[in-house]
Amino acid sequence: MPARAMTSLFSAPVRKPTAVRALLCMLALALCGCQFPFGAKRAVAPEPVAPPQPACVVLALPASGPYAAIATKIKRGAEAARQELTGAGAALRLETVNTEAPDWLTTLAALPPSCAVVGGPLRDAAYVQAQKAGALEQRAFFAFVPNLKSGEEGARAWRFFPSPQDQVDALVAFATDDLGIRSYGTFHPGDAYATRMTGILAQNLAKRHIPLRQASYNAADPTSWSDAAQPLINPVVAEGSSTPVPQTEFEALFLPDSWKNVDMITQSLLYNGEDRLVLLGTTLWEQGLSGRQVPRAENFALAVFPGAWNAQHAPGALKGQGHDFWTALGYDFVNFATALALESRLSTPQITAMAQRAATAVRGMAPLTYDDAGVAHQKLYLFQVSPSGMKPLDAAQFRDTRAAVLERAALRMQGLPSVDAQGNPLVPGAPGAPATPALTTGEPGALPAATPVAAPAATPGAPVLDTTPRPSYKLRLPGSR
């Protein structure tokens, strides 16, 4: 047999097992879902995706004690924001830690690190506890206090609350920028609050090169207040007249005292002949005026004070009765913290940058911003006194009223009546005539009997006494210089 034929006979059985093995390999690949040589592959089910974790916001508030009622209002506003956000599809976890509990910092530390934003505390003592325990380095605290210790704001913690500086800034901006006032006085008790507020005003005015006249009074002795005010007003009474003519050297008077004392303070000013000053109050006035009736409110037509809550600007969730600054604080903080989107305690500059962006979520309170140093600034609203307590400032009406008051004062200093025979004001827009002191001489707490300050006797050739207010009012009687 030829050799080629023999080779063919022996090679046939060799190729057959190879083909079988190849077929078996392809079948095994198909069964195990492995990729074929030409790129075809079997579909694989996707891995399940974990649902996103809800944002976590913590409120550090007292559940008992004198501030519990305030904390309840804050929580009410926070819950309103949570419901609103949840209805819009946002996942939110809201935790509350009772700062009156001895172990509140332990409870806070037990929360997951993702609960990185803390609103509060509401009291300085609780903030100091958190500071000493090192909690400020574990979470981002936005304290509900007007001040943080020097050097701490924007460095170790942040503030989510109006400050005394915010109050003074709002008052000076209105009086100087809107009314053109360039001279100020302050009449205050000697307590720490009034001293601190007066110091802030003095610093603010010094930057504008505006003078500030100061006088203080004994808060425990209201009968002495008219005498204490006299150096500020420096009234004189011309011979043959019984009307004191103020020589006041400023146009706006800062009164950092509670509202309950303002009526007696204005009586002390009236005793010295002064009723033209723009009276500047603090947020203490709001606490005393909110929801209360004010007799003789026209006597305070030139009074103005700041506040962080204006119901006219409130969002829908805060409309209606029962809402105030505290519910707005809770509402705004939850919205702010959610917009902050902080999942852990980042570096201080990072948190400040995030806070600058998230501040636009503030809608219940006055607008809030953070500067590059992490210091909060709130552009407070201004209010006037009304018979029902308070009302938002109408700047145009305020200017008109002030002009009428100054004109009426000029008439009085000339010995001319400011009302007609029927008691109607001769000066359009002027409020009613100032009320006489509520107490008469001899009654407990009454102002002392008036002792006119006589004008110096005229001497031949001497200039005639100028009995007009000076120098800032620029009101000059006919014939005077």
Order of strands side by side in the largest beta sheet?
7-6-8-9-10-13-14
- The CATH topology of the largest domain is given as Rossmann fold
SSE sequence, one letter per element: HEHEHEHEEHEHEHEHEHEHHEEEEH
What is the CATH homology-level superfamily of the largest domain? Response regulator
* Overall domain count: 2
What's the gyration radius in Å?
37 Å
Task: Explain what you see.
The protein has 481 residues and is an alpha/beta fold. The chain folds into two domains: 55-162 and 313-378, 3-Layer(aba) Sandwich (Rossmann fold); 165-307 and 394-413, Response regulator (Rossmann fold). The protein is 35% helix and 13% strand. The chain has twelve helices and 14 strands. The chain has helices at 3-32, 68-87, 104-110, 124-132, 164-178, 192-207, 225-233, 262-271, 283-289, 325-340, 348-358, 395-413; strands spanning 55-61, 92-98, 117-119, 140-143, 158-159, 184-189, 212-217, 252-254, 278-280, 303-307, 368-370, 376-378, 381-386, 389-392. It has a seven-stranded mixed beta sheet, with helices on both faces. The protein has a five-stranded parallel beta sheet with strand order 2-1-3-4-5, sandwiched between helices. α2 (68-87) crosses α10 (325-340), α5 (164-178) crosses α6 (192-207) and α10 (325-340) packs across α11 (348-358). The radius of gyration is 37 Å and the shape is elongated. The N and C termini lie far apart (151 Å).
